Amino acid sequence: MEPLFEALEPERAAEVEQLARIMYEAREHRRLILEQYRTDDPAELLARIAALAAASDSEHPAWEHYLAVRILDDTRSTARSLMAARLKDGDARIEAPSAPHLALREALAAEVGGRLATPPELRQDALLLRLTNGVELTVSCASPLDYSLRWRTPDGLELGIDTAPGHRGIASGPQHLHRPDGRVVDDPLTRPGLPPWENLQAVIAALLGDPLLTDQS
Length: 217
Hints:
The chain has helices at about 5, 10-35, 40-55, 60-90, 100-110, 195-210; strands spanning about 120, 125-130, 135-140, 145-150, 160, 175-180, 185. By secondary structure, it is of the alpha+beta class. Strand 6 and strand 7 (about 185) form a beta hairpin.
């Protein structure tokens, strides 16, 4: 055991070690994502996303990667603060980092558990949901303004709502809907700035009725 942990009582040492592991894994995951774009600056990646979207209304997986980096940075910051507090006085309560997704998972369990086929799966940079009608929904939420909701239907069709910047001809705002045929249209369901739970609840309700949002295109 490292000298740092040897000075702590076993329970606190285990908690500190867990936080150190979370920080390391988040840092490495972040590094691997940004290496794909040959940058270490999330702001530079965001600028590239905006430029590409303005040139072509196409899919933009880089947006999900940008959100992942934001979420991982928040995770590391939260874990670092918890570790410092735990080492200082031992009274800090250890909770899972990635607070937005943790809050969404708790709300899901309390409000719409019966609409999920399996419990929500919390990952480092996303929340995975499987609805009772076979839809698989991936939630990436860095803030009430920056999010991506991507889903796959039981037939394998993929759609998504997100707030990536730069799309032309979108009247609703930055939020837009990617349809299976490649079209990018106004988002009929979410509104940036609302609590993430409100937007997610609206999307789940709509997908349970019509995963293709046929009447909302």
